[in-house]
Structure formats: structure tokens, C-alpha cells
Amino acid sequence: MDNNIFEKIIKGKNIDKISSEQCLTDYYMYQGYNIFKSVELAQNNIINFVEFVNLSIKNSKELNVPYIFSFASQNIVVINNDYFIIKEIWKKLIVLDWKKFEQLSLIIIEICFGCIETVLTQSIIKDGRLDFEGKIPINSISTKKTYGFIEVYGVSTRYSADVGSLDMKCFVLFANSKKKNNVHPSQLFMFFTSSDFTKSSRKKLIDNGFIGLNGFQLSTLIYEHKDQLREKSEIINELLE
Fold it and tell me: Where are the domains of the chain?
């Protein structure tokens, strides 16, 4: 089943839920079947549809992003309208000026991840590019005393195409260069992109223990922290208006 089709038939309906059979009927009609064939296909595939939706919800939760639907049974599917709001934010994020995207990345690590002493480096390094850095304090929950820091280094790319293996290879080389003289300080490496990662570059992220956030994940963070982010930057208003 194609999520793009579900998105097209649901978007703009301004409803919170729809019967599973009607949703699936609309799906097959969008594919070009007549009403009678669409109803037949819907009735015969409801169980597969529910399994598909619930698996998609599970996978989306693992990525910390919303899915088109938030619940599915053989009788009804509940629409997640936040999904469509966040998708609109993502569309604006993709065409955002690259300098603003870097500034936004810095604000995200401050507000969403609690980084301090953040700075845009805007520097070209030997084995790649570094766009932002900061520190995450390790605080006691009860006393708020600080017991250490995690150094944060990141790249912020406002791409239209997906981030490929070459970009990720450079980032891995840079990360390895930060560990000198057998000293391994607490470090976190983050790669932000307005687009997405190819399958191979995503694997490199996972294999190296890096955090990679694509445009939809970043848009979700922006939406979830919109009130706090508005106070820090006018860029957020451009994305939310």
C-alpha cells in the first residue's frame, strides 16, 4: 500500500476519523478502479490495511515522527492531523535559506536538546565541514548540580537531494579526528538535513552511533517545541505561518 495515496485522499477532509472500509474504498478509487470494484477490494483487504497502518504507526514512533493515522481497527481509522501540519513545516524547511537553516539547527540543539555554549562554526575542516557545536550538561535531577558535559558537534545541510555516502564518509572522518592521543571525551555527533538520508548513509550513522535527523524529524521537533522556539527566533514564524 502507498502512504502517498493515503495522504492525498485524507488531506483537506478536516475530519478526525473515517471508517476503514471507506478509507480503503477511496484508496482504490484513487488508483482508478470504479466504485463497485473499489468496494470489493476494500472489503477483501481490510485486515491487510489495518496491519499495514499499525506497522506504519509503530515504525513512525521509533523515528519520533507522526504518521497519517494514529489508530486503526477493522471498523475505523483515526486521522493524525498533526502529520499534515508538520508536513507543511517540512515543505518550508526544504526551501529555507541555508544560513537560516544553520541558525535554526543551533536553536534546535539549545531548546530541544538542552545544549549550552552553542556556536555556529561556519568552518571548513580538513576531513569535512563542521557547522555547529555546543555542550550538553550532565545534571543531577534533584540538585541540578553539573557533573560533566557531553561535547556536541554537528553538520547542518539544507539539501534538496538526500545525503549520500560521500557526505557521511567525510563526517565519519571528522568524528574520528576529534579523538586524539587515545583520549575519548564524551562526545555526540549530529547530522541535520532538510531532506533525508540514503539507505547507505543512514547505515553509517547507525554503525557509528551518530544522531541523524532528516527534514521530517526536524519539522516534528519544531512543531513540538514551537512555543519555546518562537521566543528564540523569527525563523520559526516563517515556518509556522
Answer: 3-79, 95-240
SS3 153: strand
pTM for the full model?
0.88
All cell numbers assigned to 112: 530541544
**What does the block give as the cell for 164?**
549520500
State the Cα angle at 189 between 138 and 146, rounded to 5°.
Answer: 10
What does DSSP assign to residue 161?
S
Instruction: Tell me the C-alpha distance between 84 and 46, whole Å.
Output: 24
- Please give the chain's pLDDT, 241 residues, in tens: 999 999 999 987 889 999 999 999 999 999 999 999 999 999 999 999 999 999 999 999 999 999 999 999 999 999 999 999 999 999 999 999 888 898 999 999 999 999 999 988 865 444 456 788 899 999 998 988 999 999 999 988 888 788 888 888 888 888 877 766 566 678 899 999 999 999 999 999 999 889 999 999 999 999 999 989 888 888 888 888 7
Looking at the domain that runs over 95-240, which CATH code has it been given? 3.40.1350.10
